[in-house]
């Protein structure tokens, strides 16, 4: 199996895992947790229990000062993006929020070019423009001619995540092992959010969560499993394919979220924040198809080159 095939296969698996994680994130941020800092802290804490699995791929190494500085930037991006992300989930439909991850992808070629020297063809840049245009049309309020606040929030989120992924790629180019980068980022991430929990209001909110049911705790752990596994496989994917290609393929994620909502919203309605009425579903489908076309414009030149 070629490295390209492995990279694309991993990306598709990431899409499925993160789609369910986004659905769970909406449920917990909007209906369970009052303070987002508590949610972010517990997410980072649970993620530490997954780290032993990383040791199977290799032991972590000590980092030099420059590499540790990059790890710190990655961890800061990881903490910072979660606040506007959860704010968006509290006020907008999940598939719309997920589609807005595409906004920052217009910056992906720029960051990838200047930081790790990646190049794309002209048709691939056209694909990025198509994705961005579709995302904007999903959220713009034509009556007031302004973008929804979720669009601004998610622009910040997607740019931070793009910077984070490019910085991971930079670490790999500096011969830092995948296992070392994942473990050190998780440790620094946990240290940052622990500092936030020192605030009395956040600590008080944490103690109030003893009322969570076993089912809710189980769902929370399952959600973190989906999120962590998707994140780790995504980092692994960019070992084999360009960051821009990974980001482009992942833009199809809102299609998966919408499909899952259509399949399961009647069985577990409390879990979903998705309007599936005929009056809006058609618009979503058309714009999601445009995103897929944009993604194909990004992928196909790469497939031709590999072939």
Overall mean pLDDT: 80
Helix/strand-derived class? mainly alpha
Widest β-sheet, arrangement of strands:
1-2
Main sheet: strands, sense, barrel = 2 strands, antiparallel
Instruction: Indicate the low-confidence ranges by residue numbers.
Output: 303-307
Radius of gyration: 19 Å
Shape: globular
In total, the number of domains comes to: 1
Q: What is the share of helical residues? A: over 70%
Strand coverage percent: under 5%
Instruction: Supply the number of helical segments.
Output: 14
Our measurement of the CA-to-CA distance between the termini, rounded to an integer number of angstroms, reads 13 Å
List the secondary-structure elements in sequence, H or E.
HHHHHHHEEHHHHHHH
The count of DSSP E runs of length 2 or more, i.e. the number of strands, is 2
Short description:
With about 300 residues, the protein is mainly α. It has 14 helices and 2 strands.
Question: Explain this structure to me?
Answer:
The protein has 307 residues and is mainly α. The protein has one domain (3-306). It has helices spanning 3-31, 36-48, 51-54, 65-91, 94-99, 108-116, 122-139, 149-173, 178-196, 200-207, 214-237, 243-250, 253-264, 278-306, and strands at residues 140-141, 146-147. The chain has a two-stranded antiparallel sheet. Strand 1 and strand 2 (146-147) form a beta hairpin. It is globular.
